[in-house]
Input
Amino acid sequence: LAILGRLRRRREIAPAHQGLHCQLAYAAGDRTLATTLLGEYPAVAEPIRTGLRLDLANPHAGGTGTGWDFATLLPAPAVRVPDGVGTPFDRLITGPVQRTGHRSRITTIVTTWRPDQALLTAVRSLVAQTWTNHEILVIDDGSPAEYDPVLRAAAAMDPRIRLIRMVANGGTYVARNAGLDAATGEFVTFQDSDDWSHPMRLERQVAPLLADEAVFSTTSVGMRV
Output
């Protein structure tokens, strides 16, 4: 920040560094400076500018809440949080989506250990994917018996879900490898047990693989809110 501050006074901030300066100011807790820089720098790239605007408006992080709509960073249908019980994360929903049938199956592997409500939220988001030829493997990494109710609730959400129990806790990647051994899909992806996927995630992520056989993998971008 000190280096960027000196460059700013000399009007020598390169366009590629303007967004970084704004982000560092916000991360350091200087909301006033972050706001000033965002208005001062014309070359802050999208979605950095939108992300910072939303961060500054976040009512849970010192903002007023005006204009705090993180759905603008995601594709349609729009994400919203309806009123209800539980955390906002567990109430995430979107508008209606058109389901897509396809001969190719996608397997999503979700590893979990000592799961809570977040697992149900994660699995619910996978059940809601537009890609309907979808196998969901929930791999429990040796959780004690008291977590059985949550695991059973997750498995009961949809007939495409399979619950696989590891006999002992071996860590995330041991559990993921067990999921790979059990997967029946032509394509395989993963989701953490405390994450939520937009319903278009799989459809969009598999599109380049279907379009070009030379493409062997894709990634999706995560967002912390």
